[in-house]
């Protein structure tokens, strides 16, 4: 028997994204936490890795170092 | 993942690098002060397929001495503050109602964005939170109803509305809709002040 879930495409980008959220939750509920979390981790861990590489690369050049300095100054203007 | 009383059990969830970072930081933070995590990371912790660079957290106001001990331990455990290095300066930001950020030394992201509650509606988070139980530790998050209301009616970007939808779908039938509406009214009131 085919237990595959199918996602309904949305008519707009917004609807399509919302349909994916619903589809993903249905999937989460249909499998063990270990199964869905492995897939979620690919999304999360890759973004963390990209961010680290981005800042790491900036630190390698003097121009990059200036950008980091400016970023640090910007961070001081923390939001209310 | 199952919700029982005020706990969400996710013991089989494989922790992401983000979860590991969060738990590492919280193990230090919780020694010094009460905290509750709010905003985007909550829906990610509960399974949403997106990432974030910052983890927003409310803490109760800290005495100068307690903050000093907290800050020293953070530095010792290889965290840095993105807003400065002087203890006095960093604490003054908090006391002025500003948010301060901490990341692992040398990194800018992911980072913890820490702030004091600014009114009764923020303060209420501490009386109404859930604990998510992971195999690597426990994480306190604001109530699902508060999450949904703030995401839908306060922040309201596409990403936030989708975060709210994720929580609504995941805990369908277990969410107190009256409570969500109450938060909605309180948010409206705050907007009109």
Task: Provide a quick synopsis of the model.
The complex is a heterodimer of chains A (80) and B (193). By secondary structure, chain A is an all-alpha fold.
Keywords:
heterodimer; A: 80 residues; mainly alpha; 3 helices; B: 193 residues; alpha+beta; Beta Polymerase, domain 2; 2 domains; five-stranded mixed sheet; four-stranded mixed sheet; 8 helices; globular
Describe this structure in words.
Chain A is built from three helices and no strands. Chain A has 80 residues and is an all-alpha fold. Chain A has one domain. Chain A is elongated, with a radius of gyration of 20 Å. The N and C termini of chain A lie far apart (55 Å). The relative contact order of chain A is 0.06. Chain B is globular and about 45 Å long. In chain B, α6 packs antiparallel against α7 and α6 packs across α8. In chain B, β1 and β2 form a beta hairpin. At the A-B interface, α1, α2 and α3 of A face α7 of B.
Topology:
The complex is a heterodimer of chains A (80) and B (193).
Chain A: H1 13-30, H2 33-58, H3 62-76
Chain B: E1 2-4, E2 7-9, H1 17-32, E3 35-38, H2 40-45, E4 54-59, H3 64-76, E5 79-81, H4 87-95, E6 100-104, E7 111-115, H5 120-123, E8 129-134, E9 137-142, H6 144-155, H7 158-170, H8 177-192
Parallel strand pairs in B: 2-8, 4-7
Antiparallel strand pairs in B: 1-2, 3-4, 5-6, 6-7, 8-9
Q: Name the CATH architecture of the largest domain in chain B.
A: 2-Layer Sandwich
Helix fraction bin of chain A: over 70%
**What distance lies between the first and last C-alpha atoms of chain B, to the nearest angstrom?**
39 Å
> Could you state the oligomeric state of the chains shown?
heterodimer
Computed CA radius of gyration of chain B, to the nearest angstrom: 17 Å
Would you tell me the structural class of the helices and strands of chain A? mainly alpha
Anisotropy-based shape of chain B? globular
User: What is the number of helical segments of chain B per DSSP (H or I, 4+ residues)?
Assistant: 8
- Total helical elements of chain A: 3
Anisotropy-based shape of chain A: elongated
**Total DSSP E strands of chain B:** 9
Low-confidence stretches of chain A: none
* CATH class designation of the largest domain in chain B: Alpha Beta
The percentage of residues in β strands of chain A lies in under 5%
Number of domains of chain B: 2
The portion of residues assigned to helices of chain B is 40-55%
What pair of chains forms the biggest interface?
A: A-B, 34 and 37 residues
CATH topology of the largest domain in chain B: Beta Polymerase, domain 2
Largest sheet of chain A: none
Our count of domains of chain A comes out at: 1
């Amino acid at each position: 028997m085919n237990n595959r879930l199918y996602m309904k495409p949305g008519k707009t980008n917004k609807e399509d994204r919302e349909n994916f959220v619903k589809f993903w939750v249905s999937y989460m509920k249909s499998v063990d936490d270990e199964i869905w979390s492995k897939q979620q981790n690919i999304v999360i861990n890759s973004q963390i890795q990209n961010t680290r590489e981005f800042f790491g690369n900036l630190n390698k050049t003097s121009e990059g170092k200036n950008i980091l300095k400016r970023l640090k100054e910007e961070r001081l203007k923390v939001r209310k | 993942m199952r919700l029982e009383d005020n706990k969400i059990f996710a013991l089989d969830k494989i922790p992401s690098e983000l979860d590991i970072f969060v738990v590492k930081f919280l193990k230090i933070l919780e020694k010094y002060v009460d905290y509750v995590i709010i905003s985007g990371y909550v829906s990610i912790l509960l399974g949403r397929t997106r990432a974030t660079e910052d983890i927003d957290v409310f803490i109760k106001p800290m005495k100068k001495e307690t903050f000093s001990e907290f800050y020293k331990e953070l530095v010792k455990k290889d965290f840095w503050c993105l807003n400065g290095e002087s203890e006095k300066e960093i604490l003054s930001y908090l006391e002025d109602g500003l948010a301060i950020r901490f990341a692992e030394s040398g990194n800018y992201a992911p980072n913890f964005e820490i702030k004091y509650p600014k009114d009764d509606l923020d303060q209420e988070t501490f009386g109404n939170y859930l604990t998510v139980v992971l195999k690597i530790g426990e994480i306190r998050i604001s109530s699902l109803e508060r999450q949904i209301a703030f995401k839908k009616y306060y922040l309201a970007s596409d990403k936030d509305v989708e975060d709210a939808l994720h929580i609504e779908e995941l805990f369908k039938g277990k969410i107190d809709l009256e409570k969500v509406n109450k938060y909605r009214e309180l948010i409206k009131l705050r907007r009109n002040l």
